[in-house]
Specification:
Elements lengths: L1 E10 L2 E11 L4 E5 L6 H9 L4 E10 L2 E2 L5 H6 L2 E4 L6 E5 H15 L7 H14 L10 E2 L5 H15 L3 E5 L7 H15 L5 E5 L13 E6 L2 E6 L1 H10 L2 H4 L1
Parallel strand pairs: 3-10, 3-11, 6-9, 9-10
Antiparallel strand pairs: 1-2, 1-4, 4-5, 7-8, 11-12
Helix pairs in contact: 4-5, 5-6
Keywords: ATP-binding, Nucleotide-binding
Pfam family, one: ABC_tran
Protein name: Fe-S cluster assembly ATP-binding protein
C-alpha cells in the first residue's frame, strides 16, 4: 500500500531523512521507534505533505500512485490520514462544522455526494461514544481548551469519521493516561484493523503497542531505518534503549 524508496528530505537546508526505505502492505500495522531527532516526525510530515519539508531524492508510492506528486488535500482524499503529536487548536470553528466540511470535501474529491446534516450527526455521535468522548465536545471549537488526552481522543473521532485507508499516527500515545491510552488503542484497532487498511505508528514507547500489536517494528536513527523486527523488538528497545542499534 505504501512504498518508500531511498527517501531524502530536508527543512531549512538541513537534511533530516537520509535514504529511508520502508514498505507497508495492506492489512499491516508498522511501528516506527527511535531517539529524539532521528526524523520520525519529519517522516510523518513529508508523507502528509506539510509545507516547508523538501524531498531531495527518492520516491513514495501510495496505492499505486506517486504520493509526492499530490497536494496535501489530494493525499487526504486518496485516503491518507496524519494524526499529529500536538493537535492544533482552531478557535471559532466547532468540531461538528470542521469534520462535516472535511468529510464532504473528501467525498466531493472522490466523486461522491455529500452527507446530510442529520446523517453526519449520527455518525459523529456514534464515533464519540465509541471513543468515550462527551458528545458536548463535538460542539466546542476544535481542540480549544481540550486536555492532551481529549485532543487525542478527538483525533481518533476524526479518523473514525473520515475512514482513511492509511493512518500515520505521530506519537498518539504522548500525554495519555492509562484509560485514555487504552481507549485510543482500541480506537485504532476498531477503525484501522482491516485487510484493506494499514497503519504507521510513530512512538517513543512500547506501551501503546500493548494495545495495538504491530506486525513489524522499525528503528529510525539519523534519518534511516537501521533495524527491523517483530513486536519483540519494541520490548527489547524499552528495556535496553536505542544506544546499541542507533550507533
Amino acid at each position: 500500500m505504501l512504498k518508500i524508496e531511498n527517501l531524502h528530505a530536508e527543512i531549512d537546508g538541513k537534511e533530516i531523512l537520509k535514504g529511508l526505505s520502508l514498505e507497508v502492505n495492506a492489512g499491516e500495522v508498522h511501528a516506527i521507534m527511535g531517539p529524539n531527532g532521528a526524523g520520525k516526525s519529519t517522516l510523518g510530515y513529508v508523507l502528509g505533505g506539510r509545507p516547508g519539508y523538501e524531498v531531495t531524492a527518492g520516491s513514495v508510492t501510495f496505492a499505486g500512485k506517486d504520493l509526492l506528486d499530490m497536494e496535501a488535500d489530494e493525499r487526504a482524499a486518496a485516503g491518507l490520514f496524519l494524526g499529529f503529536q500536538y493537535p492544533v487548536e482552531i478557535p471559532g470553528i466547532s468540531n461538528v462544522q470542521f469534520l462535516r466540511e472535511a468529510l464532504n470535501a473528501q467525498r466531493k474529491a472522490r466523486g461522491e455526494g455529500p452527507v446530510s446534516g442529520a446523517d453526519f450527526l449520527k455518525l459523529a455521535r456514534s464515533q464519540a461514544d465509541l471513543l468515550g468522548m462527551n458528545q458536548e465536545m463535538l460542539k466546542r471549537p476544535v481542540n480549544v481548551g481540550f486536555s492532551g488526552g481529549e485532543k487525542k481522543r478527538n483525533e481518533m473521532v476524526q479518523m473514525g469519521i473520515l475512514g482513511p485507508k492509511f493512518a500515520i499516527l505521530d506519537e498518539t500515545d504522548s500525554g495519555l493516561d492509562i484509560d485514555a491510552l487504552k481507549a485510543v488503542g482500541e480506537g485504532i484497532n476498531r477503525i484501522m484493523r482491516a485487510p484493506d487498511k494499514a497503519v504507521l505508528l510513530i512512538t517513543h514507547y512500547q506501551r501503546l503497542l500493548d494495545y495495538v500489536q504491530p506486525d513489524k517494528v522499525h528503528v529510525l536513527a539519523d534519518g534511516r531505518i537501521v533495524k527491523s523486527g517483530g513486536p519483540e523488538l519494541a520490548v527489547d528497545l524499552e528495556r535496553e534503549g536505542y544506544a546499541e542499534v542507533a550507533a
